[in-house]
Amino acid sequence: MTDTAASTHSSSQPPLSPEILRAQLLRPLPNLTFRSLVFILIAVAILSWSLAGVGPSATNRVTSIFDPFIAMGNLIVRMLPPEFEVARTQQVTINLFGQPIVNTTIERSTINIFGNEWEIGWLPIITAIFETIQMAIVGTLLAVIMALPLSLLAARNVSPHPVIYQVVRLFLNFMRSIPELVYALLFVAAVGLGPFTGVMALAFGSVGSLARVFSEAIEQIDPAQVNAVRATGASGLQTFVYAVIPQAVPLFISYSIIYFESNVRHATILGYVGAGGVGFLLFKYTGTSDYAKVLGSALILVIAVTIIDRFSNWVRLRFI
Questions:
Q1: Which end of the chain has fewer CB atoms within 10 angstroms, the N or the C?
Q2: CA distance 172 to 154
């Protein structure tokens, strides 16, 4: 009887005219309700509070809204034209499985082009970029190795016990709350300067976030495939190997590549605290106000990141 009354009530309402329905569908914004107005006021209050806390102070030398853009324009003028540091002599060694296959010394020389002298030779920024990429590769690999078992314990559908699930999640939140730069400072104090410190900082700085996204990838698998494999009489380990892993591996590869690209940029910053890589050269150039070489290093870094991005897309198309 209730269904009959409801259908009678709904049928008694006159249908909307095509003009009104079309106007509702084409309306770019929804109607302003009391709840949406409250949300807007809260958002404006939070934004005002944030601006009041981080706005320019007397130490920023900002008197108008155009001052930051003027100052940035003056800095760009000081950076032009870009310059590149050329090493006087550079010993270039390329190892393969621990054996040097290329070992040569590149001397700096000068050539004259249209009346202007240009120095040619090995650029130290190239060595720094290679070191940065090596740090990102090894650091990401260590993070993946540590994140895989943690992600299994942090995934709700495969974790052995709810208590273990909550404890591992809390541990991952703790790991993710500390940025890579802080890890670098700690490892510099613990093991000293150098790229190994950067590797450890990237590994421990990425494992928390990487294990989190790995666990979410495991939680998103299709349970029907798991039940189908379990219905064949497979054991828990066999079900995990043949039903869980094949579904999650493509996402594992995708997330690992994304974090590798991110770690290349993070490794650039770690050089500022003595962890090697491009950051060390940028710290040296900015410390001497040699902004033209900063721009030159940035241009080469952009080229390197673009090449890495293209290579990563190629890998995704092949394996995902």
A1: N
A2: 9
Site of tokens 């944030």: 50
pTM of the predicted model, to two decimals? Answer: 0.73
| Backbone dihedral angles phi then psi of residue 72, each to the nearest 5 degrees | -65, -40
Yes or no: say if 260 and 312 are a contact pair by the CB < 8 Å rule. yes
Distance CA 273, CA 182 (A): 10
**pLDDT computed for residue 87 by the predictor:** 72
Helix axis angle, 278-287 to 245-270, nearest 10°: 30
* CA distance linking residue 223 with residue 243, whole number of Å: 9
CATH superfamily assigned to domain 126-319: MetI-like (1.10.3720.10)
User: If we measure between CA atoms, which residue out of 285, 1, 262, 299 comes closest to residue 132?
Assistant: 262
Q: What are the boundaries of each domain within the chain? A: 89-122, 126-319
Strand partners, 102: 94
Nearest one of 132, 130, 113, 274 to 190, comparing CA atoms: 274
Query: pLDDT, tens digit, for every residue of 100-122?
Result: 665 666 666 666 666 666 666 66
Predicted pLDDT of residue 90? 67
Distance CA 218, CA 247 (A): 8
Long-range contacts, 237-240 (Cβ 8 Å, 24+): 240/158
With beta carbons less than 8 A apart as the criterion, state whether 230 and 158 touch: no
CA of residue 47 relative to chain centroid, distance: 26
The DSSP letter of residue 92 is E
Separation between Cα atoms, residue 172 and residue 223, nearest integer Å = 25
Nearest to 136 by CA among 258, 290, 315: 258
Two tokens, residue 312? 């990563």
Tokens encoding 226: 């798991």
pLDDT tens digits along 262-293 = 888 888 888 778 777 788 888 888 888 888 88
Which phi and psi (to 5°) does residue 34 adopt? Answer: -65, -40
